[in-house]
User: Which sequence fits this backbone?
């Protein structure tokens, strides 16, 4: 049978860095300079090095993220897939490629469709004002074009990413965004609050008081406005930041939230296998050098004991709004959630952050909004 697992590949290439982004990627204003061949060879080598310890794993989802995977040609992914199929037990039911709306061609999308059956478009905003505030390089018309071409190329499973609470956004902007977003009829929507990550240009502008984030009350209002709007259009809010039409939850991301095994390839990628967490260093040069010499890239390895795995699984599992099953956790980890967290859990329940119902523990409306606080209490 094999242990079901997810496979992620990190492609750390972008045209330019967006001011809010702290994902590991490098800007390539000249796309010709992306080391496509060398990177593919390094990935193949990394797969080969992992291969002996993955004989029991069956990879059922694949996700190409970044960075901007759509800067790479379809042939890159076709060759990578063939290699994965030849070297691992790799039969993905869901294979997602992240793309940016600008610079997509029908020919490339057709090529991607030969390998991928799901596409995630990094639209981020559906208004000119929002795209400008976020420092994005594309236009609203690029999103429309990307959706049309992706559909034409055969992608029937399409996700759109959106960032809300950008500086200057008001409720009318948000409503306009959402109306346009649903008019594209995506199967899945990810909505993230704009968060200034330390050391990013956005963070620095905020430190210098050059940009103001929206007040907390407004952000809360936006969060529930999005929830009501999308639920009203037939999407189910299934994870703190994610909505899907029935049957279209992201299978790959569920592996992370359900603390199931995953392998991450590429610089900066993380893996969770056999109770160990691996994190490749975020350094393309060192990644290529190490694999060029037939060695694993520099990485951190952490072994989690049963208790640490349990605590992590609780926190990740609560991100999914249906919550966690207490009997299943007891069976799987040997810990009783209620006894283990004792007083802390009692007070989170009493203060209305969590709900216990039919042997399941889940975030309440208040808990969804203050999930970071809840997770800090349970960590
Ligand atoms: S395109 Fe995506 S990965 Fe690249 S810098 Fe912008 S947000 Fe980050």
Assistant:
């Amino acid at each position: 049978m094999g242990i079901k697992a997810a496979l992620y590949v990190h492609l750390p290439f972008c045209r330019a860095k967006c001011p809010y982004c702290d994902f590991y990627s490098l800007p390539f204003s000249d796309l010709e300079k992306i080391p496509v061949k060398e990177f593919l060879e390094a990935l193949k080598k990394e797969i080969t090095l992992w291969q002996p310890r993955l004989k029991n794993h069956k990879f059922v989802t694949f996700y190409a993220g970044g960075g901007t995977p759509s800067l790479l040609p379809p042939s890159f992914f076709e060759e990578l897939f063939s290699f994965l199929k030849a070297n691992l037990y790799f039969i993905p039911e869901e294979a997602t490629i992240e793309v940016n709306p600008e610079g997509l061609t029908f020919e490339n999308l057709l090529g991607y469709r030969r390998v991928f059956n799901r596409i995630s478009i990094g639209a981020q905003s559906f208004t000119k004002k929002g795209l400008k505030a976020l420092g994005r390089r594309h236009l609203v018309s690029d999103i429309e074009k990307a959706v049309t071409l992706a559909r034409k190329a055969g992608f029937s499973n399409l996700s759109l990413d959106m960032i809300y609470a950008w500086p200057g956004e008001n409720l009318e902007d948000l409503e306009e965004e959402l109306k346009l977003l649903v008019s594209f009829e995506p199967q899945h929507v990810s909505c993230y609050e704009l968060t200034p990550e330390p050391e990013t240009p956005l963070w620095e502008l905020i430190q210098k008081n050059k940009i103001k984030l929206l007040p907390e009350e407004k952000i809360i209002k936006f969060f529930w406005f999005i929830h009501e709007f999308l639920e009203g259009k037939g999407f189910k809010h299934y994870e703190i930041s994610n909505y899907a039409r029935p049957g279209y939850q992201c299978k790959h991301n569920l592996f992370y939230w359900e603390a199931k095994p995953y392998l991450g390839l590429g610089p900066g990628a993380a893996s969770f296998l056999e109770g160990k967490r691996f994190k490749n260093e975020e350094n393309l040069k060192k990644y290529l050098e190490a694999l060029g010499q037939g060695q694993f890239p520099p990485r951190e390895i952490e072994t989690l004991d049963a208790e640490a795995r349990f605590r992590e699984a609780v926190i990740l599992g609560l991100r999914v709004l249906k919550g966690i099953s207490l009997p299943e956790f007891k069976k799987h980890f040997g810990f009783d959630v209620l006894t283990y967290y004792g007083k802390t859990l009692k007070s989170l329940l009493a203060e209305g952050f969590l709900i216990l119902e039919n042997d399941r523990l889940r975030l309440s409306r208040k808990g969804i909004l203050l999930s970071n606080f809840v997770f800090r209490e349970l960590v």
